[in-house]
Design brief:
Blueprint lengths: L1 E4 L8 E2 L36 H13 L4 H10 L8 H7 L9 H8 L8 E4 L11 E3 L2 E5 L4 E5 L6 E6 L9 E3 L2 E5 L4 E6 L5 E6 L9 E3 L2 E5 L5 E5 L5 E5 L15 E3 L2 E6 L3 E6 L5 E6 L20 E2 L3 E5 L3 E7 L5 E7 L4 E4 L3 E5 L5 E5 L5 E5 L11 E3 L2 E5 L4 E6 L5 E6 L10 E3 L2 E5 L4 E6 L1
Antiparallel strand pairs: 1-11, 2-7, 3-34, 4-5, 5-6, 6-7, 8-9, 9-10, 10-11, 12-13, 13-14, 14-15, 16-17, 17-18, 18-19, 20-21, 21-22, 22-23, 24-25, 25-26, 26-27, 28-29, 29-30, 30-31, 32-33, 33-34
Length: 450
């Protein structure tokens, strides 16, 4: 792993963006949102689309080479440039492409009130990698595969600057220790000063960085596509430590990254494992099983933790694909409670409940003390959901039709459902001082009031 300091004479990457410039990466910069039409049927997937063939190769190879760990690794290597390698996603490509919802569901969703975005903007479209905006230093930052990080005013959506990283990016933007952090498909981690936009350093790791790096207490924590977690020095980018656990032969591609809390790092792994690491040196504090693999075939036995855990002062909770949700004592990793549920999107926690976005499209709330089921919202069944966000008295979740769903925390009722640009919202919404924001597959950045 190599780390290089940015040269002293390197030019500043941030430059002002005129609001009326035809080349501005923002739409609706004056704060007046354009009207968003309701999504119709899903767009058909044409065989002529060149992006389709790598997925055909992956799918056919997976069928042909099933059960051979070495060959599965080879297929994974061939598809390194594809970020969205998800078992359910592969199934969808070969299905009808239509959302499986009943007429009754559709009718009920159509009468739910909608709200218009306070502002909207755009960055580069990302058909494969998962990008999400981030709020830091009083601004919203959003990026795309073209390597441009755009800074927006959180109140008006006006673009105030751009950092051109000059690298194709593989995932969203991370923050911490006064930096903006991004990763590439080549395993590079790029650090920029959050205030000036000047490049600080570049580190080269083992393989692609699909999730946002984050920093705290002088350590940048980065997760790579081969399941390793790196701790880098915040000032220089030099490697301080690396952690790697055992990996099954077949896994679900994860964009989750790792969670920094106080002096620990928490991360879920393939095979249903959750670990707590020491932030300063990467040593294992404890390891627990969220869900144990079960089934006759390798596909059935996939039970990976593919989303970020959530925690409070006493416990940390995680959820597994084709598995369970489980909560553990934060000190020693002893299990407190567990329930059967499947999610590769993720979960959220507040003072009373843990909320899970299920694979089938439902949202479930559990009492975080003992796992008692509080409510279940099934009206979105058939859609793919983002991880939920707790925002005030509401839960906010994006879906595969490009809607932002606002849900009451106490009873699970959907109180508003607002459209964006008809493309999927795959990443968790983020909180702003006066609302929330989402980023879509098409690169749309939409902000909604509190």
């Amino acid at each position: 792993m190599r780390a290089s300091k940015a040269s002293a004479d390197e030019s500043l990457n941030v430059f002002p963006v005129p609001a009326d410039s035809p080349g501005s990466p923002i739409a609706g910069a004056n704060g007046v949102p354009k009207e968003i039409s309701l999504p119709g049927e899903a767009r058909p997937f044409h065989l002529a689309n060149s992006a389709f063939w790598p997925y055909v190769l992956l799918f056919v190879s997976s069928l042909t080479l099933s059960g051979c760990a070495g060959m599965v690794d080879m297929v994974r290597d061939v598809t390194r440039s594809l970020a969205d390698i998800d078992v359910s996603g592969i199934t969808d490509l070969f299905g009808s492409g239509e959302v499986q919802m009943s007429p009754e569901q559709i009718a009920q969703l159509e009468v739910i009130p909608s709200t218009r975005p306070g502002w909207e903007a755009s960055v580069e479209e990302s058909p494969a990698a998962v990008f999400l905006p981030v709020f830091g230093d009083g601004a919203v930052y959003a990026g795309g595969p073209d390597g441009r990080l755009v800074r927006f005013d959180p109140a008006s959506g006006k673009a105030s600057g751009v950092i051109d990283t000059k690298h194709p990016l593989a995932g969203g933007i991370g923050t911490g220790d006064g930096m903006l952090l991004v990763g590439t498909f080549k395993g590079e981690v790029l650090a920029f000063d959050e205030k000036s936009g000047k490049p600080k350093w570049t580190a080269n790791l083992s393989t692609e960085v699909l999730s946002p790096p984050h920093a705290g207490m002088g350590v940048v924590v980065v997760r790579t596509g081969d399941g390793r977690i790196y701790g880098l020095d915040s000032e220089s980018g030099k490697r301080k430590w690396v952690y790697q656990g055992a990996t099954p032969s077949l896994t679900v591609r994860s964009f989750a990254g790792a969670l920094i809390a106080d002096d620990r790092v928490y991360a879920g792994f393939a095979g249903g494992r959750l670990v707590a690491l020491n932030l300063s040196n990467g040593s294992l504090v404890w390891e627990a099983m969220v869900s144990r693999p079960r089934g006759a075939t390798e596909l059935e036995r996939i039970s990976d933790v593919t989303s970020l855990p959530v925690l409070d002062e006493q416990q940390v909770c995680a959820v597994a694909y084709q598995g369970r949700i489980a909560c553990f004592d934060i000190t020693a990793g002893n299990q407190i409670w567990t329930r059967d549920v499947s999610s590769n999107a993720g979960l959220a926690m507040d003072d009373n409940y843990v909320y899970v976005s299920e694979n089938r499209g439902g949202i479930v709330a559990y009492d975080k003390r003992d796992g008692t089921s509080i409510w279940a919202q099934d009206l979105l069944n058939g859609l793919k959901l983002s991880a939920p966000l707790v925002h005030g008295a509401r839960i906010v979740v994006g879906d595969s039709q490009g809607y932002v769903n606002f849900i009451r925390k106490d009873n699970g009722a959907i109180i508003a459902r607002s459209g964006t640009d008809e493309s999927a919202i795959t990443a968790r919404p983020i909180s702003l001082p006066n609302g929330i924001a989402v980023q879509t597959r098409k690169g749309g950045v939409f902000a909604f009031g509190a």
